[in-house]
C-alpha cells in the first residue's frame, strides 16, 4: 500500500540550491528573504568558523599544520594571526581550505538530512565554485552587483578592512563574468533592480521543481 501523498512528501529529501556571489554582492541579504519564506538556509562560511572551534579533529589538524599559535589560550581561533599566515600564501591558504572544507561538507550533509519535508534548501557559500562545493547540488544562484558597489558596501560593512585588502579579496574570487556563466540562475542586487520579485520568481520555480538540465 502506498503511503499518503503528504507522508511521502514529508520524507522526500529537499532540492539543494547553492547561492553565492562576490564579496559585497548581498547574498546574505537575499538569503534572509528566502528564510522569511520559510526556506532553510545553511551558511557555509559561518559554519566553517564555528567548526574551527568546536570540531576536535579540525582543531587538531589546524594546530598540526600551523602550530599552537593558531588558537588563543581560551580556545578561540586566533583569526587575525591565522589570516596573516595565509593571506599572501596560496599554498598555506590551500592547506587551510583542505582541512576546513571536508568538515563543512560533512556538516552540511548532516544538516540536509534534518531538513526532510522542506521543498528546497539553500547552501550559502562565498566560494561555492572555487571550493567545488557546488557539486551534488541541484542548481546554483549567483547574486550579482557591480564591482564598485560591492567595494563600497564592503568598506561600509567591514570598517577594519582597507580598500586594498577588499580589492585583494575580490582578486582571489572568480571574476564576475565567470561566476555568472557557471550559475544556473542570477539575482541582480545593484540597488536599481528590485530584489524581492526576483526571489519570489525563483521561489515559485523551485517549488514547482523547474530546474535546468544538468550536464553529467
TrEMBL record:
Its main location: cytoplasm. Pfam families: CoaE. It catalyses: 3'-dephospho-CoA + ATP = ADP + CoA + H(+). InterPro entries: Depp_CoAkinase (IPR001977), P-loop_NTPase (IPR027417). It is an enzyme of class 2 (transferase). GO terms for molecular function: ATP binding; dephospho-CoA kinase activity. The keyword Kinase applies. GO terms for cellular component: cytoplasm. It comes from the Bacteria. Its EC number is 2.7.1.24. ATP binds at residues 24-29. It is found in: Cytoplasm. The keyword Cytoplasm applies. GO terms for biological process: coenzyme A biosynthetic process. Pathway: Cofactor biosynthesis; coenzyme A biosynthesis; CoA from (R)-pantothenate: step 5/5. Keywords: ATP-binding, Coenzyme A biosynthesis, Cytoplasm, Kinase, Nucleotide-binding, Transferase. Belongs to the CoaE family. Catalyzes the phosphorylation of the 3'-hydroxyl group of dephosphocoenzyme A to form coenzyme A. This is Dephospho-CoA kinase. The gene is coaE.
Amino acid at each position: 500500500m502506498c503511503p499518503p501523498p503528504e507522508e511521502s512528501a514529508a520524507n522526500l529529501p529537499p532540492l539543494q540550491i547553492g547561492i553565492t556571489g562576490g564579496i559585497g554582492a548581498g547574498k546574505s541579504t537575499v538569503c534572509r528573504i528566502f528564510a522569511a519564506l520559510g526556506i532553510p538556509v545553511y551558511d557555509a562560511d559561518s559554519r566553517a568558523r564555528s567548526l574551527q572551534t568546536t570540531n576536535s579533529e579540525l582543531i587538531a589538524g589546524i594546530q598540526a599544520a600551523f602550530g599552537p599559535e593558531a588558537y588563543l589560550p581560551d580556545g578561540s581561533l586566533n583569526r587575525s594571526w591565522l589570516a596573516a599566515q595565509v593571506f599572501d600564501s596560496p599554498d598555506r591558504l590551500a592547506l587551510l581550505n583542505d582541512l576546513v572544507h571536508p568538515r563543512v561538507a560533512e556538516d552540511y550533509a548532516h544538516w540536509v538530512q534534518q531538513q526532510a519535508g522542506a521543498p528546497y534548501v539553500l547552501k550559502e557559500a562565498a566560494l561555492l565554485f572555487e571550493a567545488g562545493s557546488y557539486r551534488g547540488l541541484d542548481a546554483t544562484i549567483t547574486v550579482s552587483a557591480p564591482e564598485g558597489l560591492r567595494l563600497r558596501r564592503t568598506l561600509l560593512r567591514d570598517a577594519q578592512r582597507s580598500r586594498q585588502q577588499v580589492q585583494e579579496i575580490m582578486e582571489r574570487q572568480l571574476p564576475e563574468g565567470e561566476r555568472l556563466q557557471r550559475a544556473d540562475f542570477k539575482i541582480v542586487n545593484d540597488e536599481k533592480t528590485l530584489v524581492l520579485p526576483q526571489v519570489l520568481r525563483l521561489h515559485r520555480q523551485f517549488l514547482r521543481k523547474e530546474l535546468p538540465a544538468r550536464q553529467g
